[in-house]
Amino acid sequence: YIRNLTVILEVFKYKNIFIRPSKTFVIFLNILILGKLIDKFLISIIEGKLKTITKLDFPKTLTQLNYFIKFAIYLQKNIPLFGILVQLLE
């Protein structure tokens, strides 16, 4: 799909055709971008990545805990009750 879209945009550029983002609508069922599955309703982590994350060892030092919390902040939209869980770790 990316190749087709690129070709279409190149033709637009060659023909001097301009499109406004406000008047443009792109439809896709779902797409995989940077390890996340995106559809028209939500963004979710791929199940395989989620399994890998859940197998991580619990941090043993304060430095490891800080790295773990920073990593969790990156994934916080996928973690229910994230704020409460982080408070329990502190």
From TrEMBL:
The keyword Mitochondrion applies. One of its GO terms (cellular component) is mitochondrion. SUPFAM superfamilies: DNA/RNA polymerases. The chain crosses the membrane at residues 25-46, 67-89. InterPro entries: DNA/RNA_pol_sf (IPR043502). It is found in: Mitochondrion. Its main location: mitochondrion. Keywords: Membrane, Mitochondrion, Transmembrane, Transmembrane helix. It comes from the Eukaryota. This is Reverse transcriptase domain-containing protein. It comes from Neurospora hispaniola.
